[in-house]
Amino acid sequence: MAKRSTIKKAIEHHLQFTLAHSNDKNPEAFWKATSLAINDIVVEKLTTTRDRQNQPGVRSVNYLSLEYLMGRLLSNNLHNLAIYEEAEKAVKDLGFDLTDLCEQGADLALGNGGLGRLAACFLDSLATLDYPATGYGIHYQHGLFKQSFKDGRQIEEPDLWREFGSPWEICRPESAQLVPLYGHVEHINNADGSTTSKWQPSVQLKGVPWDIPIVGYNSDTVNVLRLWESRSDQAFDWDLFNRGDFLNAHGKNIQAETVSKVLYPNDEHEAGKELRFIQQYFFCACSIKDIIARHQTINGVDWAAFAKDTAIQLNDTHPTIAILEFMRVLMDEYQFTHLDAWALCREVFAYTNHTLLPEALEKWSVSLFERVLPRHLEILYTINEDFLNNEVSVKWPDDNQIRAKLSLIEEGGEKKVRMAHLCVAAAHKVNGVAEIHSKLVKQDLFPEFDALYPGKLTNVTNGITPRRWLKACNPKLSALLNKHVKEDWAKDLDSLSSLEKLADDAKLQKAFMDIKLENKKALADEILASTGVKVNPEAIFDIQIKRLHEYKRQHLNFLHIVALYRRLLENPELEMHPRVFIFGAKAAPGYRLAKEIIYAINKVADKVNNDARIKDKLKVVFLPNYRVSLAEKMIPAADVSEQISTAGKEASGTGNMKLALNGAVTIGTLDGANIEIAEEVGDDNIFIFGNTVEQVKAIKAEGYNPYSYYEQNAEIKAVLDWLDTDYFTPGKPYELSAVKHSLLDGGDPYLVLADYQSYSDAHQALDEAYRDEKRWARMAILNTALMGKFNSDRSINDYVDRIWQIKPCTK
Length: 811
Ligand code: BZD
Fold this sequence. Notes:
With 811 residues, this protein is of the alpha/beta class. It has 33 helices and 25 strands. Helix content is 48%, strand content 15%. The strands form six sheets. Strands 1, 4, 7, 8, 11, 12, 13, 14, 18 and 19 form a ten-stranded mixed beta sheet that branches. Helix 26 (674-681) links the parallel strand 24 (665-668) and strand 25. The protein starts with a helix and ends in a 7-residue tail after the last helix. The structure holds N-[(phenylcarbonyl)carbamoyl]-beta-D-glucopyranosylamine. N-[(phenylcarbonyl)carbamoyl]-beta-D-glucopyranosylamine binds at residues 112-115, 118, 267-268, 354-355, 360, 433, 462, 650-654, 672.
């Protein structure tokens, strides 16, 4: 283990020789020097890990994801290397505070939300459990946009995460890959009567990899996250330059660089843009070539060994083109027959589904495919023909309806490729991300595929890494847990269940709730600094953090806040514990209603927070720029976790797990992983409300009429009508009407009004529970104690057992 003196020396060395900053106290330079010093230790471990893993017979998984929400790495790496305390002393010797330093540096925000953060948690667990694994992704120049509010409205600005470099990355130009695009396919007639297809691409990009080391917690392993950056194949057009066209001499570079320029900010909605399609292919082509190259360096060209040693996991359908690219390489470069190539694909690929929302299911137009990847389309047609004739029609002879339903190509209107169908046909396993979600994938999304391929569709419930989401982000609670639990709970999270028997212990309750209060004070300071709103740390901190989306129903929370405000105006003596509602959420820039919801919350917040009549019983804050590093401050301070999606819509959720682990009590619907959280903590320690999946289906089948709720529930009517007035936007009536219209004229697609009363009642019960201090402390402790199931190490071991069949590779 690195000692204080060694770390100190390494920091001084980097300050002086890498950064040329010998004597000053520039915190930015000091952060960089510290990160570089720690990276020295990391890289040494990376090299020994690679030597161990790059041996014939070592099976590894390749995780393909367009998104990784890594957050900051300094604190995480120090904790995982178990040198946080030594580094703290070393840094102190040099006149700095490690907590402050860990707050420096931009987040690596190369993702939108849950899917990207899940990928980051999985990498942490894979390295912790010593599994050989490589993450593949895109080295976006700009990650998810930075959010601010102007007059209550969301403003987006570009994210500049590596404007001044990033100390953790290693560029590997020697492993660059070339990526062909566009052009046409030539068909050459062979002497034996067969034809050979030859793709003649017209454009070529270069993919340059940047490696980010992924440090396991108390393990032997440092794996790699390899991110591809696009460049032009030819660096510079000397012809143009010599002719005096200085600006365009860089033209090709600029075009090529746009491919990895920016992360698309649409979650759960496909933009259908050509550049996104090219991004996906660029990423898949680089990754597939890299996987093959690595295999050949170890094994030579031995395809039987390839299937034995290689698992490829597709994180949603975004990297589906990897399947077609693998087929193309096998057939066109290694002379595989179509059938042999397909058989190998089926051994290697597996696919994770993260959504049932129809608007999020990817479909790319056949004409776009034809233009950008003509050879891949040809291969796809053959796959589809085989699939329909040899599988679908064998199971359902002469059933054209089923053929049309399952086909990889959607007909009628513009022809489109159904990416999810290709994934299910090719993968040997398909998993959903929580029990209920996987059940609905089988029942509602792919029932025929489930019948065609029994056992292929399975579940792996999501998880979160307890290292980042408790040990590092909540040091005070971690110290308390260390006192009471003898096992290393950050690895063995189930061991926290030994706290169950102490849940009523007065001393533990006090210590637990004191820490919560300390964390709330720290968040209150942050709220004051970033919004100017002063909140009372003794109030209930009620937190909803997630992307802004109608199905997640921030507007249900909003309506209830407006109702509480109204109740308080009518009766300022209303018995309720003071409450602070705290939001964090980014809306996709093109999602109009989501942005209107943000605006409405901000406008109501302005009014409520400045109304002396309600005596500080209610405050509302919307923290700008929600991201991993802000989540790390909010989650330890939460009393209440809002998980209120329409049943059947949230595949799993992972914020629900993080908040409960930090002692927040959930108010939630029976949706996604909430159901499994309720099973773990028991009905007494969670507030469940709202219609179930079955009830939602029944309501919709009957013909849902939101007006009936508006007319029959006086509070709903009063609240919605209030939004049409200028009460919250003086001089501008109807400014907040968009929410009302979406719920009434828009048909309330996510059943906000149908669940309103039940939600309001659950909040009432929650308020009463909070006022019983012992009862609440017990609930909070039990939530922390009983989250063992949601350790992402358990999820990874499920993937290993059910899908990947890999083994730990230790010293
Ligand atoms: O994936 C989310 C689901 O909505 C959550 O329920 C689930 O817990 C997590 C992890 O499984 N999905 C996303 O976050 N999806 C995206 O971010 C996304 C991004 C691009 C395109 C489509 C969806």
